[in-house]
Amino acid sequence: MTKNTRRTQRGEPSLSRDSIIAASIDLLDAGGDSGLTFRALSERLGTGAGAIYWHVANKDDLLDAACDAIVAQTMAMAAGSATMASQEAIRAIGLGLFDAIDAHPWVGGQLARAPARMPMVRILEGIGSRVAALGLQGNALWLGGSALLHYILGVAAQNAANRAYAQTHALVREDYLAAVGAEWSQLDADAYPFTRGIAAQLREHDDRADFLAGIDLILDGIAAQQARRG
Amino acid sequence: MTKNTRRTQRGEPSLSRDSIIAASIDLLDAGGDSGLTFRALSERLGTGAGAIYWHVANKDDLLDAACDAIVAQTMAMAAGSATMASQEAIRAIGLGLFDAIDAHPWVGGQLARAPARMPMVRILEGIGSRVAALGLQGNALWLGGSALLHYILGVAAQNAANRAYAQTHALVREDYLAAVGAEWSQLDADAYPFTRGIAAQLREHDDRADFLAGIDLILDGIAAQQARRG
DNA sequence: ACCTGAACACCGTTCAAGT
DNA sequence: ACCTGAACACCGTTCAAGT
């Protein structure tokens, strides 16, 4: 993610798709979705806005490539564990993604926005192949894989949104949760008994542990249906 | 959703928050996220852009209110069935939301973007109270409720993103799925065996049935853990 | 082949001025 | 109290012109 130094060797292009993507990731990490603009990017790279369009098609392409760089790296690390049991491997993939989105919250939003593209395919492949190794086939395999995928993407998007909201309103996690908890406590007691009841748990909960528990719930459901089919 | 007729009674404000929200929903339904602008909205309402700011705080407020109008109506309909078994009620809520997002795809994106706000609280309350009725308490209740919530929001966001992508590229569902399937079929056979294998199923699958199967998977997982706890 | 940078057609939001 | 509409500070994207 080092700053691109222009035309380091004579005749070589001063800009490359990779350096543009790396700079984009830096901007997104620093300022969230609104931190990446072609103006900020061209200033950082020391070029004009038009030059960037020679290497990327448009902003969607750029966001997709930035997201894919993070996801590809994350999946490569999580997949290194070939000797793991399938259930363990699925948890490892989930946690790897969780931590990656914790470090790069904009990735969660991008995964929710760009469906069926490479980043999602990488996750699908990682999850799906492990579900297949569990012994599922045909429709059960499809359903198990897509349930896990959608759950993971759902948590990713919500985490990203929570982070973005807190950042926009200049709140740290603690204060953000306290504010939401306070709001929920003031909901109408007849209409929102459940939400009022859990408002207190909001402050103490551990996103990462809860995320893992959700994966286990789905894995248990898969095992139960598998046992029922015999 | 009828066009606001200005100053129908003398002295009455010609604009109202409700009429602004209704017009916003129309624009979002017709043109997706990019269909809602203050310029399009003010033209449709026959006012200036500044007038709208007297009734809504900003665009986020407007999007949130539009989303909440749809979700509130959906939850009110799904909650009408008080005699249902809890598991049935959870499925009914899920399907109600699925169909609402099918009719208003932008709602899925908005749910992913605005965390812990009223639309999400309504869903949380509907789901959580039914999970509580299943007999869960304490941490198990929290985990079960949030797993179902995240799964539902994850599917909602992905469906919305798929629809938005297809609309932007002027594709009908069939052609969109065919295009994605074709892309997946051309992935490297060694790196993406799973994804290549399910590319064919992509065209035949039923989003709605798959969504329901995912809910059942989580409900089965909850039941299995409940049985284990005795 | 690659880059420049001004220009275009948009945005959300503000605000003095009106009624 | 409510509305007008021009103005402001941005966007992403294009494109003639340069090297």
Quick overview:
The structure is a homodimer of 230-residue chains. In chain A, 73% of the residues lie in helices and 0% in strands.
Report on the structure:
The structure is a homodimer of 230-residue chains. With 230 residues, the first copy, chain A, is mainly α. The first copy, chain A, has a domain of 146 residues: Tetracycline Repressor, domain 2 (Orthogonal Bundle). Helices cover 73% and strands 0% of the residues of chain A. Chain A contains eleven helices and no strands. In chain A, helix 1 packs across helix 2, helix 5 runs antiparallel to helix 7 and helix 9 packs antiparallel against helix 10. Chain A is flat and about 60 Å long. Chain A starts with 16 loop residues before the first helix and ends with a helix. In chain A, 42% of the residues are buried. At the A-B interface, helix 6, helix 7, helix 8, helix 10 and helix 11 of A face helix 6, helix 7, helix 8, helix 10 and helix 11 of B. Chain A binds a DNA duplex (19 and 19 nucleotides) through helix 3.
